[in-house]
Design goal:
globular, alpha/beta, 342 residues, 12-stranded mixed beta sheet
Length: 342
């Protein structure tokens, strides 16, 4: 993937990414594809309609936009999807973005479902990525197959072990689901502690229409944490990754437990991130529909147009999300998580 050295807009270099609520944006999440090889029930409908390829940003355009954010102060980028590793030639993008580490970018990471990690782990490390988040809500084969509609948990665990062997730090992302996997949360934490992985627990979020009622599955992490405290020694940890999780050390080990609780413990006051969709829309908040079209801005106005659109997006960033879960409540927004990126 070639780098166009004529794309700089010197007037924007150094102009900080500060929204109207005086929050500095340091973190960009990029959905490189809305497609996924799984169909997790809380995330997607079984019969999803994906974007035609003609609507997507090219990998070159993703790189240009990402590098523009780096030039203006973003220090962390996370690649996600859908499943990022299903996009053809995504390795070229990862390599190019990784070349910015130490030149403004401090960290490049990825969230994956793990199905293709064994195939890509060594290349990921070579590109400069040092840790990955793997979404895995259950280690029980039947439950995993149910929640993903057809997934093989042994394939995912094999990918996790291959990634660890290649030198990647691993964090497991587990969506806490009432009446489904709540009995697996403590065993999952014990497994992560024993294997040297971190674990982040996530409350289900009302994004996009799905085939089930999220109210029936909502499990507040306040109750989960209280229960875990009876089985593990949990000490508050000052560790920060740039994301919304709050962390606790587990049993004096190297493992950290993170809690991402947008409903029971709102984290919007410290929000430092924006999200770029695979079709080039910049969303300032998961829980709002406000967005700016960076693809159109780049194609029509070059880097100067891109900078203007980014500034407009920063001004529109809301103070907080509007997530609510309850009987009769619809999703906060119509788009699915796979469109915006995790």
């Amino acid at each position: 993937m070639a780098t166009d050295t004529n794309l700089e807009n010197p007037s924007a270099l150094g102009r900080p990414l500060i929204d109207r609520h005086q929050r500095t944006i340091r973190y960009l999440r990029i959905s490189v594809t809305d497609r996924c090889d799984l169909r997790c029930r809380y995330c997607m409908s079984e019969k999803m309609t994906f974007l035609p390829r003609s609507k997507l940003l090219s990998l070159e355009e993703i790189a240009i936009i990402a590098e523009r954010f780096i030039a203006r102060g973003v220090t962390k980028i996370r690649l996600s999807g859908g499943e990022p590793l299903v996009r053809r030639d995504v390795g070229e993008l990862v390599t190019r973005l990784g070349s910015n580490i130490g030149r403004g970018l401090e960290e490049l990471t990825m969230t994956t479902n793990g199905t293709r990690l064994a195939e890509h782990a060594e290349a990921i490390v070579d590109s400069g990525i040092r840790r990955v988040n793997v979404s895995m809500d259950s280690r029980d084969p039947d439950r995993f197959r149910y929640i993903t509609r057809h997934g093989d948990v042994d394939q995912v665990i094999g990918g996790i072990m291959a990634a660890r062997d290649a030198g990647l730090a691993i964090k497991i992302n587990m969506v806490a689901l009432k009446g489904f996997n709540e009995d697996e949360i403590a065993p999952m934490l014990a497994w992560c502690r024993d294997e040297g992985f971190d674990l982040s627990l996530i409350e289900t979020m009302p994004l996009g229409a799905i085939d089930e009622d999220r109210t029936d599955r909502f499990l507040p992490l306040t109750a989960v944490f209280e229960q875990l405290g009876t089985q593990f020694t949990l000490a508050r940890d000052a560790h920060k990754t740039g994301g919304p999780a709050r962390y606790w050390n587990v049993d004096g080990s190297q493992t950290r437990l993170g809690l991402i609780s947008p409903l029971t413990a709102n984290f919007c006051d410290g929000c430092n991130r924006v999200r770029l969709t695979t079709e080039g829309k910049l969303y300032m908040c998961l829980g709002h529909d406000d967005q700016v079209d960076l693809k159109a801005a780049l194609r029509d106005g070059g880097i100067a147009g891109l900078d203007t659109a980014i500034d407009a997006g920063l001004y529109a960033k809301p103070k907080r999300h509007d997530f609510r879960i309850g009987q009769g409540e619809g999703p906060a927004v119509a788009r699915h998580m796979s469109v915006t990126g995790g």
